[in-house]
Specification:
The complex is a heterodimer. By secondary structure, chain A is of the alpha+beta class. By secondary structure, chain B is mostly beta strands. Chain B is about 0% helix and about 65% strand. Chain B has no helices and 18 strands. The relative contact order of chain B is 0.24. Classes of the chains: A alpha+beta, B mainly beta. The interface between A and B is medium-sized, with 24 and 24 residues. Strand 3 of chain A pairs antiparallel with strand 1 of chain B, so a sheet runs across the interface.
Chain lengths: ~90, ~210
Amino acid sequence: MEYYIIDKIEYLNGEVVYTQIGYTTDPLFKDQINEMYNDFFIFVNENKTGLESGTASISEFFTNGNYIYSNNTKTTSIDDMGLMEINL
Amino acid sequence: MALIEGNFTGDVRIPAGSTYTFTHNQNTGTDRCLVVIVASPAVSVSGVNYGGQALTNVRNSSTAYSTFWSVWRLLNPPTGSNTVQINLSSGSWNSTSAICYSFTGCDGVGNTNLNNTQASNQTTTLTILNNSMVIGANIGGNSTAAYVEIPDGTTRPVDWNHNINNFTWGGISPSLSAGTKTIQGGSTATSIIMAVEVREKVVAPTTRRRLIVV
């Protein structure tokens, strides 16, 4: 069985923070979640030079306390992780 | 004791800093081992921890894709779900791939080999001991129709397929017989390939003594 861990990504105290909030076993749902992450991925790639030099800030992506969800981790065991299943 | 492949975790993300974490579950059993492979564009990996314990660096290579490829292992890691911490030499805004394989009945990582020449359907060779498993991994320009064969001619499931602006993918064989193996992998683009041997723990037979009374 493959488990797709769902993260909440937000900008807190000057840092990008990934927090595990649950999991799904549905690859279609996982792909839907990653549509949000794709916007983050595009923003970072388009502003990478500025982010690396400090002339751009990732906070510009997280306006008004916005957050996104993503699936970054796939695993064969979620034992003892204390995560709840999240579905559509 | 037989080498047994346990849990697998694959993670790909933008670190947005010089360190990040995710969770992996190490199986219970004797002679446990955790193997971690990290593909990090532009920025090298300074260390990997699992459950607070530092992994030993087995291999650290810069590659033709401007990506650092490192292999790490931890003998007798803590069991259950624990935090994997990837530490980079500096902050990174590049998607970074980390994969974890857990084993029992394991004597750690043996030989490794990297073919760092970009080519279609690239190969590398690896000499292994009896019952070793082999991890085959590629970095390439795309991962369309990505495959890995260990040994060549025997396709293995692709356990991970990660977009790191280039792409990295790979899989693992079951236990193989001793000898020199050719590992092949590719996609519709050119790629490089690395092979990593995971060895079985061999227990020496017990010496029996006989008392002969004459």
